[in-house]
Automatic annotation (TrEMBL):
It holds the Pfam family SpoIIM. Keywords: Membrane, Transmembrane, Transmembrane helix. The keyword S-adenosyl-L-methionine does not apply. It comes from Aeropyrum camini SY1 = JCM 12091. The chain crosses the membrane at residues 6-31, 66-89, 109-131, 152-177. The keyword Ubl conjugation does not apply. This is Uncharacterized membrane protein.
Length: 184
């Protein structure tokens, strides 16, 4: 008996694309009409992560992002729109953070982008993949076995990306942006 794989790579890519649109729309709205109060909880989380020993800081970021990606995946399975909303909200927060960096912290927009892009090239697609796999599960998963297989496939894609992004965020992104490292 051969095992049937879940179909739906096209659905994963559609979800990824819809997530990208939601994220980019969120970034634009966040930059044009920021709400700086949304950054307070992020500052608190960052403060907790910075209290960790330098070698454990990427693990703190990784765990936080893995939980957020899992939430995005589960919410997408429920009805698609909640997962897209989470991605759009993350985009809004990124846009708000960019605007804050430029207007309040007096950073050049290029430097502000350099604080996001190096690790964002892995982190953002991981969240978009969570939406895509969530859509595939919503449409194709029938029963526990298919749901588990889809979930494991989602983690096989997102975990390495989020882990690498966390290491880059702590040790490489600050150096590239020229703002000093967070690793020590």
């Amino acid at each position: 008996m051969t095992r049937r794989r879940l179909p739906g790579l096209g659905i994963v890519l559609l979800g990824f694309s819809l997530g990208a649109v939601a994220f980019l729309a969120g970034v634009w709205v966040g930059y044009v009409k920021p709400d700086y109060t949304l950054l307070d909880p992020l500052s608190e989380k960052a403060g907790l992560i910075l209290k960790l020993p330098p070698a454990l800081r990427p693990l703190g970021i990784f765990i936080n992002n893995l939980l957020a990606a899992t939430l995005t995946y589960v919410l997408t399975i429920l009805l698609i729109l909640p997962g897209l909303s989470v991605v759009g909200l993350n985009g809004y927060i990124v846009g708000t953070a960019l605007k804050y960096a430029v207007d309040v912290k007096d950073l050049n927009l290029t430097v502000a982008l350099l604080l996001i892009i190096p690790h964002g090239v892995l982190e953002i697609p991981a969240f978009l993949a969570s939406v895509g796999f969530g859509m595939r599960c919503l449409i194709y998963c029938r029963g526990l076995r298919q749901t588990v297989e889809n979930t494991l496939a989602m983690y096989a894609v997102t975990v390495p990306m989020l882990l690498a992004a966390a290491v880059i965020e702590i040790f490489i992104t600050p150096a590239i942006a020229g703002v000093g490292g967070l690793g020590g």
